[in-house]
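Kindly review these tokens for lecture notes.

. . .
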Amino acid sequence: MTRKKALGMRFATTQEPPATVAAAKRAASVTPQGHLRLVSDCDARSLPAALHDCLVTAFAAGAGHGLFYLGACEVGTALPPALAWWRDFAARFVTALCAIPENGEVAIDSPDRAALDAMIADVPPMTGAEYLTPEVLTKLWEDLDNAFRAELASSKLPLQDFLKSRHPAWNLVGPVHFNLSENRKDPQAPFAFLATYPDAVQVRQFLTPGLVGIGAIRNPARNS
């Protein structure tokens, strides 16, 4: 399924995708009020026209929809650092959805404060990065959850079929193999819980002794 076809399925009832813009330059920005926006930025890297159009359409529906699009649909896509950071943030949510059994309750808790603080410490240069706080990220997580629920309901698909319709990689999330390994870089979390999925995605989880949070989906080549 092409990027535009997948996006069109989700927004067909609300709006048409915007016209293609050559050499489009967009960047993620956080307002002083903690709102996430996709804004024009002449200093940003040009995005491919199809990606640009889909991002503009998704974020026009709200930050939650923009985040869900990044996390669910742009798996493995080369993105500018700030958009990639937001993609990783949203991918935590989508990864957790994959662990929900068929007909199970769809309830995804937001990362705890320690995990949110760690994410903020790792944020790349971004307009408004100084406005990011655990409270801001928690609110954006709620927006992401609401957007996901609206899109799932609109699709009238079972959860796993819905996720597969966002990106073929989710079709490869099957057997999960767990391994406990030493995490020497963090004395406060001496063990790493590694969950490995076939080929497409890899999720790293840290224990302190208990599970703290779900790591972001990343291209396995980036983790090697």
